Amino acid sequence: MNMTTRISDLFRWKSNAARGCLAALTVQQLLVASSTVWITLLIKSVSVGGGVALYLGLYLGSLAFPYLPGGLALVLLSKWEQKMNRGFLDDFIAGNRSRPTAWSSKAEREWRISILASESRQTLAQAAEYSYKSAASSMNVFLNILVISVLVERKFALAYGASLVASALLYRTLLRQQSHLACAAQSGRIGLTRELISAWDNVVLGNRYNFGRWKEGLDRSFADAAGAAVRLVSFNQLISVAIACMTLIPTVSVVVWSVLAKQDDVPALSALIVVLPRLFMILTSTHELLSLASRWNEQQAKLGGILSVLLPFREEIGARIQWSKISLRSVDGTVAAASPAVLELLTQMPGRVTISGENGAGKSSLLTMLKEKIGADAFFLPAHHALRFAHSSDKGASTGQSLRRVLEEIERSVPAKVLLLDEWAANLDSENREHLSRLIDRIAVGRCVVEVLH
Prior knowledge:
By secondary structure, the chain is α/β, with parallel strands linked by helices. Helices cover 71% and strands 6% of the residues.
């Protein structure tokens, strides 16, 4: 699936919320545009001594009724944003579930969690609002210009067409630079989020050395993020100013020409003067529309950035394992050199297998590789994790008590044939180690337990 298709999928266009939002918005904009019709016809009727009741009633109605579909559109926009967020979360789960190799990479884990927990929600909310504003501005501009061109002066359509062409050429010229600045701003935000995630330990524990190093990284990340954000906003504002000039000059020229040309046609001149405020309101909407169009590449870059966490992480974890420095000890005390073949044989029968070796030899990576290979038939319990268990919310338990409850829950509720334990005995006293070791022996009666110990 190509990137454009994936970005389109993020919007969930087929959802009822998206369709309902755009439908309600269309009704609102049609009512708003009709007010230009009724006020123009009202002024023409008044200028020739005609009746006012019908057109006045229609005009007042076109001012009042848009609030109803407009409010509904905003409610559905909120639902649409939540649908996009939920869909992204489901895609994240589908793309990353059962990927222990990705879990073992700290840098990859921090990057993906930073995007999932913060950047994705902000980016998707902005994308939904961007789509809403773009649709609203587009309909507002084109419907009103159509009405004014038909009822007042056709040359306004030519003026707006010229503005759009000139703005499109400018946008095309600056496209690559804007994309680069948008990617830099997003990278800055994600980098700052990664620093903030580690704030708790470094701030609360009060270690001056760690706090100093963390603060240096935070200040650097904050400066990078702030600088990138300001550069992007400044660049976008320069584009906006240029677009404002491109839309203003052709329209003002047509207004001046029309006033001079219609001096002797009182009904036509009256209609032109009445729609002038609306005309310049449309000019503002045109400026907003073109500014939004100039930021599409920025939106695309940001959406492409969060898409990266939906793709599977690829790494050959076997390169981390130094097989010659690792040994295996089975329940009967037999010690053997570690190898994929021996491990595969041992995990096919109940019992307890202990992995030992030098620090940095890749013992934990070996467990990760086993989980990757065995899949759902293996249960991996790392030394440090945020896995959800029945007693996960019990904050008063000691390390030994928490681990005992986890192992008992695994014994009771997890049918996996292989249990992988990474350094479960770390930071436990001898009494707790002996008690938990007996519990592991009991679990190993009916399944294979592979453990890493110091």
